[in-house]
Amino acid sequence: MITARAAASFEPVGRSVATARAFVRDTLQGWGFADIVDDAVVLTSELVTNAVVHAGTAAEVLCLRSDDGVRIEVADRYPEREIPLQSSAVNMGSPDREGGRGLQLCAALANRWGVDYTPTHKQVWFQLDLPERPVGTRAAGPSLPADLLPLADGRVRVAVVQIDRKGTITAWNEDAEDLFGYAADQVTGRPLTDLAAWPHTPGTGTGIAEALRLSRWEGSYGIRGADGRVNPVYASHLRVRDTAGEPSTVCLLVRDHERAVLQTPLRGPATDTSTVSDGNTPDPFEVFIGSPAPDDLDGLLQRTVERARDMLDGDAAFLLLATDDETELEVRASTGLPSARQRFARVPVEAGPGRYGSARMPAVHDDLAAVPGAVPLLSGTGMRSVVTVPLKVEGRLTGSLGVAAESPSRYSNEEALRLQFAADRIALAVESARLGELERLRRGSLSFLVEASDLLAGTLDRDQTLALMAQMTIPTLATWCAVYTIADQASEPYLSYVLHEDEERIDGLKALLAKIPPPEPIPTPGARVWAAPADAAHEAALRTSMRSLGLGEPPPLSSGIGTTLATASTVGGETVVLPLVARNRVIGMLTLGKPTDEHFRQEILELAEDLSRRAALALDNARLYSERTAISQSLQRSLLPPELPRIDGVEVEVIYRAAGEGNEVGGDFYDLFPIRDGAYGFAIGDVCGTGPEAAAVTGLARHALRLLAREGFGGPAVLERLNSAILDEGARSRFLTLLYGELWPQEDGSAVLKVVCAGHPLPLRLRQDGTVEPAAEPQPLLGVMEDLELYEQTVTLDPGDVLLCVTDGVTERREGTRMLGDDGLTEVLTTCTGLTAGAVAARIMRAVERFASDAPSDDMAILAMRVPGLPKD
C-alpha cells in the first residue's frame, strides 16, 4: 500500500542531476528512511544523468513510500532505447567505463528493479526495502532457577542523583548517602565532575558532559566517596525536563557488581526454564554478549571487551581487527586503558617496529616488564600480565582479543582457553558486523564521491576549487585540512587554504603551519604520515607552559597559553599528506589531520585518496583556465587603445563589452588617434570569429590604420592597403567589417568627417530635431576581394549633432525570434536628443541589455561622438 508520494521534474541540463539528488535525499530523510538514503541518492544520480545528460531529455522522478520500503521511478522521453532481454546472460560492460552504469548499480544495490516502456516514455524503477527492526518489547528475559539469578547483598541500595543542565547536583537521596558517605547538603550545588572518576576509553568518544546530555545512557564509572576511595558504580542516566521546561538528568547508581539491577538488556542467557531443566546448555554467544546483541559494530566490540574483562576479572581489555591483507591490526575497542591508546592506531602483525607478537595463537604473558613491546597497545599503561587470543573465521585471522591486569602472573592457560572459547563464539558475528559496516561505508563513499565530483566539476575558479576541496573533507574525513599548492617545478609548496571544523581554531592552525616547512612533494600515491605539525605544536605548548610558570622568557602580548594548548590539541593526532598529482606532475598536497589521540581509518584514507585524485584534476583545470583567461584578457587589452585623446570641440565616449567568460579574445575593436594637427582618425571594426586568428587580424588592422593614416593616405587608400595586407595572411586571413573616418573640428563649432563604411553597420547621425539618418553608404567588406574600389563620404556635424557607430553585436541582439536590428537602434537613438555623448552611449547599451534576458553571445562596441557647439558668452 502506498502511504506517501513525492514527485518532481528536472530540465535536460547538467545541474538537474544535483537537484534531483537533493530532492530524493530530502524526501527520504523527511520520511525517516535515513538507512537507505545513500543507496537511493547514488541510483537516482545515475538514472537522472542517463536521462538529462546522455539522452538529453527531461527527467521525472517519483518517490513512493510503502510499509516495507521505497520505490523510486525515473522516467525520460527517449523510449526507443532498448535493454537486453534478461532470459540470457547479459554483458553490461565494464563497471569502470564512464557511462552505462545505471542498470548495473540497480542490479547491485536495489532489492528489485525494472524498466517499463510506453510510446512516449521510458521508466526505470528500483525498490529499496527497509531493514528489519524488532517490534515489541525492547528486551525481555525468561524465568530462571534461583541459582542462576545474579548475586546481590541483603539490601540493594540505588542512589538517585539529579543533575541540572549545568552539570550541578540538585538532588541526593538517602541511598546515595549510604553508598558514598556524603550528606545531601555536602554535595548539593557541586558539579558531578568533582565526584565522578570518568573512564577514558578509546573508541567511545563520550565524556561525562556528553553523557549527561544524552537522552539515555548506561555504563560504568567511579564515584569518590567521603573517605577518598573511588567506588565503582554502574549507572543508568535518563534525561528529563521539569514543569518549567528546564532539562536535567536523573542518574540511578548501584555498586558495579550489582549492575544486573539496572542493566538493559539482561546479562543472563536467553533460554527458558524447560531448556535449562533438560540439561541443554544455552547459546554461548548470548551468554557472553547478552541478549539482544548490539546491531552495530562499535556497540558489539565495546560489549565484547567489557564482557571479556568481567569474565577474567581483569583491569582492562581491548580488541583489534585485522586489515584485509592481515598484515596489520587496528585498535577498535578497549576499556580500562588511558586515552593515549588511540582508536584506529595500527600495528604490524608479523614484523617491523612495534609488531604485535603472537597474534595468530593464544598467548599468556606473565609479566610484560620482562618482554617489553610484546603488546604495543599496553606500553606505558601499568599493565603487567595479559592474555591474548585470535579471532578467526574459516582459518583466517580477523582480529585479536586481550584482557590485561595490573598485577603480574594473573593468568594461566586455563584463562586463555576460556577466552579463546568466547572468542570463537563471537568471531563470526564480529566479522559479519565488520563486513556490514564496510558495505555501508562503501555505499556512503560512493555517494560522497558522486557529489564531490559534481561540485568540483561545477567551477573553474581556482580559489573556489581550493575552498571546495577543504570543505568536502571537513568534518566527513578529518577534523582539519590544509591545502598546499605548487606553481611550477621550481617553486616551493605554498600554504593556500586552511580549514578546521571549529572556526575559532583556524587562525592558530594557520599560524602554526606557516612556521614549519611544508611537506615534501612526493608523487608516490597514497597517504603518508607527517609528524611535523604535532611536534611543532607540542614544542610551542611546552614553551608557553614554561613561560607561564616563570621558567622562560615572558610570552608576547598577542599569545596565550590557552591558544597554544588548543592548537596543540588540534594537531595532536595523526596527520597525513596526500599528493595532488595531475598530468604526471605534483601540483600540491592535501593535508588531513585529527585531534589528539585519534588515527585515521584505512577506509577513510582510501576515500581521501580517491578524492585527492579528483581534486587534483579539478585544481589543475582551474589553473589552466585561469592562465588562459589571464592571457586572453591581456591580449584583448593590447588590441584596444590604452586611452582616448581629448578633442577640443568634440565629445567622445566608447563602451566595449566582451561576450563569453573572458577566455576567448573577441574580434571587435575600436580606435581614436591623432593624425596631424587638427585632424583625428577613428575606426570601429569586427573581425570574423574569435580566438588567436581573429586577434592577429585585429592587431594588424588597428596598427596598419594608424601607420597608413599618419603617412598621409586618405580613407579609401588606407582601407585598400589594409585589404591587401589581410589577404597576404593566406589561410590565416579573416574578413573584416570596418568603419573608418577622419575628423576635423571647425572653428564655428561644427565638425567635418570623411568616412568609409566597408561592410560595417552604417553610422547613424542624430540631429537636434530628433531625426536619425545614416551617415554613410555601404561598401564591400575587407579580406574577401583583391581589387576594391572604395570611396569616402563627407559628413558635417552641426552643433548638437551626434554620430553613433556600433558593431553588429548591438544590432543583432536577439530574444527568441526577435532582433533589435537597425530599426530598433534608430528608435532608441531618437530618444537621445540633447544628451551628452556619454549619456547617449549609456542609453544605447542599457537598451541593448534589456532587449534580451540571456547574456550577450557576441562582443559589442559603441562609439558616440557629439559636437556640443561653441560655448555661449
From TrEMBL:
Keywords: Hydrolase. SUPFAM superfamilies: GAF domain-like (SSF55781), PP2C-like (SSF81606), PYP-like sensor domain (PAS domain) (SSF55785). Pfam families: GAF_2 (PF13185), GAF_3 (PF13492), HATPase_c_2 (PF13581), PAS_4 (PF08448), SpoIIE (PF07228). It comes from the Bacteria. Residues 160-190 form the PAS domain. InterPro entries: Bact_Sigma-Reg (IPR052016), GAF (IPR003018), GAF-like_dom_sf (IPR029016), HATPase_C_sf (IPR036890), HATPase_dom (IPR003594), PAS (IPR000014), PAS-like_dom_sf (IPR035965), PAS_4 (IPR013656). PANTHER family: STAGE II SPORULATION PROTEIN E (PTHR43156:SF2), STAGE II SPORULATION PROTEIN E-RELATED (PTHR43156). This is SpoIIE family protein phosphatase. It comes from Streptomyces glomeratus.
